[in-house]
Design brief:
single chain, mainly beta, six-stranded antiparallel β-sheet, 6 strands, globular
């Protein structure tokens, strides 16, 4: 059996990222609740800031506005930053509404 996450969505690291300042509680099967701080998000994943104690390939489930519960896989970790990829790509309409909730300052939102 292959080690690590077997992701169904392609690696799209060039996707538009939206800066946010959004705390969430991630659910991990071994560690339980993890306090995470999302600093940017795209339709394919998000980046956190702060130590969370996970290794590449581990999974967490988070709850996002408009999206609800979604699983994400740790793709990379560097210093106190971590990049996660969602288990599925988010629908554009849901993603835009989520950004409006997570980043209420319209000046900080990317042009649509």
């Amino acid at each position: 059996m292959a080690a690590g996450a077997q992701l169904s969505v392609t690696d799209m690291r060039r996707a538009a990222r939206h800066p946010v300042d959004f705390p969430v509680i991630g659910e991990h099967r071994r560690l339980g609740d993890l306090h995470m701080h999302i600093v940017n998000v795209s339709a394919q994943g998000f980046m956190t800031s702060g130590e969370i104690g996970l290794t590449k390939g581990e999974r967490v489930t988070i709850r996002l506005p408009r999206i609800g519960r979604i699983e994400a896989h740790l793709i990379w970790a560097l210093d106190d930053r971590c990049g996660f990829q969602f288990e599925r790509i988010l629908r554009l309409e849901d993603f835009l509404q989520m950004i409006d909730t997570m980043q209420p300052n319209p000046r900080l939102r990317r042009a649509r």
